[in-house]
Amino acid sequence: MTAYKTRTVTELLRAIAIFQTCKIQWIVKNAEKLLATSAAAFSQRVTDTVVKNTFFAQFCAGEDANEVMPTMARLRASGVGSILDYAAEADLNPTEVPWDHEAEGIYPPQ
Asked: Residue 38 to residues 15, 46, 60, 86, 104: CA-CA distances in angstroms?
């Protein structure tokens, strides 16, 4: 619970809203369509800003070292350690995805 002491009421309310939203299967299953609809209706820039300030802010420490380091320092001061992971995404056609045949039994191609 110590880590939550450093959070503002706004950050805690955002976290509750995000976790409650993630429990709604219809939203989770249709996230891509909802984001595309939002981008078409409001613009990609507005959609990206909303996502960055809600879901991204909840689950990611930042986009680069300048954003990540203060987050890690704040967590460390609360007794919470950090693990850095590099995340990259790409929309690939299933025929373009490199396939590891050794892992075929674990993760079959779609």
From this structure: 21, 8, 22, 27, 36
